[in-house]
UniProtKB/TrEMBL annotation:
It is a multi-pass membrane protein. Keywords: Cell membrane, Lipoprotein, Membrane, Transferase, Transmembrane, Transmembrane helix. Belongs to the Lgt family. Its main location: membrane. This is Phosphatidylglycerol--prolipoprotein diacylglyceryl transferase. The chain crosses the membrane at residues 14-34, 46-65, 85-105, 112-130, 172-191, 198-215, 231-251. A 1,2-diacyl-sn-glycero-3-phospho-(1'-sn-glycerol) binds at R131. Its EC number is 2.5.1.145. It comes from Brevibacillus fortis. GO terms for cellular component: plasma membrane.
Length: 265
């Protein structure tokens, strides 16, 4: 088992979860700045937005999780602040990021959809990296599996997924791999196949949510409504529907106007 604490200096403890999330934010920011330069957006705007988006995303991701797991925290409210233990809901983080980013975009009169297209590859890359924080904390895994099933995975994954004398589906790995696939698709679209602003954003909504819906059904720690309905699956269905509708509407509008938003060159 991997120790969740990477560095301990006296009372100071640095957790792997925090290191991994920090890496995700750093690489995501670097990529968004790089993409913005090639799309005609001042990269300083990206950096200014990230300063707002990251804390807003973390706070909302935590509040979202705590809201659906209130029974776990109501008697120990200080545990709400222990984010290094995990418990950051991606959909909550997306809400916080969108709210903070929208405020900045509106204040500076920037093109929302174009900036969203620039940010979405960074978001999905960060999600792919962030899932390894779940791996370290032995969370976001699926149901029990046999030792024979786990033989197809590297030893370090098998060992970390052996919890309480039982192997579990490494669903964190499934989602990380799916997210990397979506990342590749979004980058290709941004650079070679973008026809209109919003195309990358809508593709993210559809593709990420397809994978999340399927993988969420395998997990044992899903946030629930009425003890039966998986919140992430419901949100994923809504995002897929919205993404498909918006994609069709904007694609039709693009054809009618005869205007093509060139891919980044």
């Amino acid at each position: 088992m991997i120790d969740p604490i990477a560095i301990a200096i006296g009372p100071l403890k640095i957790h792997w979860y925090g290191i991994i999330m920090g890496l995700a934010f750093f690489l995501g920011t670097y990529l968004a700045r790089y993409n913005s330069k090639r799309s005609g957006i001042d990269p300083d705007h990206v950096l200014n937005m990230v300063v707002l988006i990251i804390p807003a995303a973390i706070v909302c991701a935590r509040l979202y999780y705590v809201t659906f797991e209130w029974e776990q925290y109501k008697d120990n409210p200080l545990d709400i602040f222990a984010v290094w233990q995990g418990g950051l809901a991606i959909h909550g983080g997306l809400i916080g990021g969108v709210l903070a980013g929208s405020w900045y975009i509106r204040k500076h009169n920037l093109p929302f959809l174009r900036l969203a297209d620039i940010f979405m590859p960074s978001v999905i890359l960060g999600q792919a990296i962030g899932r390894w924080g779940n791996f370290i904390n032995q969370e976001a895994h699926g149901g029990p599996v046999s030792a024979e099933f786990m033989e197809k995975f590297p030893a370090f994954i098998r060992e970390q997924m052996f919890i309480g004398g039982q192997y579990y589906h490494p669903t964190f790995l499934y989602e990380s791999i799916w997210n990397l696939f979506v990342f590749a698709v979004l980058m290709f679209m941004l650079y070679r196949f973008k026809k209109f602003d919003g195309q990358v954003l809508f593709s993210y909504m559809i593709l990420y949510s397809l994978g999340r819906f399927y993988i969420e059904g395998m997990r044992t720690d899903s946030l629930l409504i009425a003890d039966t309905l998986r919140v992430a699956q419901l949100v994923s269905l809504c995002l897929i529907a919205a993404g498909v509708i918006l994609m069709l509407v904007f694609a039709r509008k693009n054809r009618q106007t005869g205007h093509s938003q060139n891919s980044i060159e």
